[in-house]
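Exercise 7b. Backbone tokens:
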């Protein structure tokens, strides 16, 4: 497949030099570098185990509770039962 990419001038010069010194084409050098980078990313990020969330029955979030306000949520959870 043919495509156009933009490379830093110094990076392109280094890649051309490497291609010349190793007897490879510039395309081969770029493909090899890209394959190596992609292979490392695959190895570094192993699949995560699924997270199992515990749920309870109920009627949802209580009126006045904002789940996006962690400080207010913590204050609400620390209040004695039965207080409003």
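Sequence design result:
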């Amino acid at each position: 497949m043919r495509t156009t990419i933009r490379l830093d001038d110094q990076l392109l010069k280094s890649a051309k030099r490497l291609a010349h010194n190793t007897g490879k084409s510039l395309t081969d050098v770029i493909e090899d570098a890209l394959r190596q980078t992609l292979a490392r990313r695959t190895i570094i990020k192993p699949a995560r185990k699924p997270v199992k969330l515990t749920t309870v029955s109920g009627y949802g979030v209580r009126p006045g509770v904002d789940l996006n306000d962690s400080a207010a949520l913590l204050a609400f959870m620390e209040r004695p039962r039965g207080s409003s």
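Instructor comment: The chain has a mean pLDDT of 87. Residues 9-44 form one domain.
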